[in-house]
Structure formats: structure tokens, C-alpha cells
Design a protein that fits this description.
6-stranded mixed sheet; alpha/beta; 9 helices; 10 strands; binds adenosine-5'-triphosphate; binds magnesium ion
């Protein structure tokens, strides 16, 4: 459903993404692993059209999206939860979600009840300002906001970063539920190995902008971990 081929990206003179090929099938749950600074966020932002690429092609649901704007990609069904969450701190939970609704293709302007089923805390705290939520609650809001657009694939960039363990578990359950019950494809960037193992079916390892290894999660062995992931 999402295909990247031969993606090269530069920041100024620095070659950040090198000939990246990646394919996410419908209903797949894939985790991108890699140490700090290897280009994971740059890859996610490239998929969203937030940074320009030098060469390569991207298709989504059979359409070439390489030249599409971020908004067009979002409307086509690519949901994105950025690293650091980036919710609006001064707006309430409800306002954050409603703002996202404006991006829907259909005329639905009501927050889908599914969002509150998945994250009851967002209903409970609907009048609270985003900035007054805990880190974990903000992350749930950021995921809820992406789901408001009814995506076909959800990209998440380190959703467990700086979050208390019980909410990490909850987020893991929600991702599996979305994947299994609704068939949502998920492409996740994650540095916490136990979480990645629990949630994802497949892994992709990046190092200095290259994809070095990939496979079924049970093929992620000690050698790969030592070589590419331990700090
Ligand atoms: N806007 C930018 N301008 C110039 N260089 C950048 C920019 N953003 C990132 N970089 C550089 O590109 C490289 C990849 O960064 P990126 O944020 O994609 O890594 P990452 O794998 O997401 O890291 P982390 O695990 O710390 O989030 C790094 O060397 C970083 O310093
Ligand atoms: Mg990053």
C-alpha cells in the first residue's frame, strides 16, 4: 500500500537518506529501529512531504505521491503522529481534535466516537488545555488527532518517548487493536525494543540513512541488536 523506492534526501550537503526502499502492505505493522540520528524522523517527514527529497519515488494506494503536498498525503489517508507530539498546548483537547476534523474529505465535523472508545481520557478531559495534560495523555491526543482523519496507514515517530510505563502499555494495545480490528497499517519508529517486539510484526533497521536489515520480528536476533541498536 505504501512503497518507497530509491529515496535520497539531503540536508544541505549532508546525505541523510541513502537509496531507501521500503514497502508497507495493507494491514502490516512495521517498526523502524535505529540509533539516534540515523534518519528515522527524516524518513517519516519525507513520507509526509514535509521535507523535500532529491530522488526516488513514493506510491500510496496505487497512486504516485512523490510530488504531493503534505495536505494531499494526509487527505489520501496517511496519518502522522510526529516525534514530540506537537499538539496545540493552549487549545483544549476537544479543540485540538476538532481542528483536525477540518482536514477530512467528507463533511463529517463531529469527533468520531471511536476516538473516545480507544482513549476514554480524551472524553474525560475534553475541556482541559492540551498543554496541561501529562506526556502520555498528550501522546494519546496526538494519536487521536491523527485518527480523526480516518487514515489507511498511521505513521508514528517514537510514540513512547518520555512516557510513563502504564500508558506505553495502553498505546501498544491501541495500536494492535487498530491494526487487528480495523486493518489499519502502521509504520512505527521506536527505540524501546520490548515495545517494538510486543507491537510489531516486522522490523526494519536503519543505520546512517541506509536500511541495513529487515524481517519478521522473531528474526531480530542478538547479533543485529549488538551491531545496529545497542548504544
Ligand atoms: N532540519 C535539519 N537540518 C539539518 N540537519 C538535520 C535536520 N534535521 C535533522 N538533521 C540531521 O539529519 C540526521 C538525521 O536526523 P533524524 O532526526 O532524521 O534522526 P532520527 O533517527 O530521527 O534521530 P532520533 O532517534 O534522535 O530521533 C541527523 O544527523 C540530524 O542532525
Ligand atoms: Mg527522530
Amino acid at each position: 500500500m505504501l512503497e518507497l523506492s530509491g529515496i535520497n534526501q539531503y540536508y544541505g550537503g549532508s546525505h541523510i537518506l541513502s537509496d531507501v526502499h521500503l514497502s508497507v502492505g495493507a494491514g502490516e505493522l512495521i517498526c523502524i529501529l535505529g540509533r539516534n540520528g540515523v534518519g528515522k524522523t527524516t524518513l517519516m517527514r519525507s513520507i509526509m512531504g514535509m521535507v523535500g527529497i532529491k530522488s526516488g519515488a513514493m506510491t500510496f494506494a496505487g497512486q504516485t505521491i512523490t510530488q504531493h503536498t503534505t495536505e494531499q498525503r494526509a487527505r489520501a489517508g496517511i496519518g502522522f503522529v510526529p516525534q514530540g507530539r506537537e499538539i496545540f498546548p493552549l487549545l483544549t483537547v476537544e479543540e485540538n481534535l476538532k481542528l483536525a476534523l477540518a482536514g477530512r474529505r467528507d463533511k463529517i465535523r463531529k469527533i468520531p466516537s471511536q476516538i473516545h472508545d480507544l482513549f476514554p481520557v480524551l472524553l474525560e478531559m475534553r475541556h482541559r488545555r492540551g498543554g496541561d495534560l501529562s506526556g502520555g495523555q498528550q501522546q494519546q491526543l496526538a494519536i487521536g488527532r491523527a485518527l480523526v482523519l480516518d487514515p489507511k496507514i498511521l505513521l508514528l515517530d517514537e510514540p513512547t518517548e518520555g512516557i510513563q510505563p502504564n500508558i506505553v502499555v495502553e498505546i501498544g494495545h491501541v495500536l494492535r487493536r487498530l491494526n487487528q480490528e480495523l486493518g489499519l497499517a502502521v509504520l512505527l519508529v521506536e527505540q524501546k525494543l520490548p515495545f517494538a517486539r510486543q507491537v510489531a510484526d516486522r522490523f526494519v533497521i536503519m543505520e546512517r540513512g541506509h536500511i541495513q536489515a529487515s524481517g519478521a520480528m522473531d528474526q531480530l536476533n542478538e547479533e543485529l541488536i549488538q551491531r545496529y541498536l545497542t548504544v
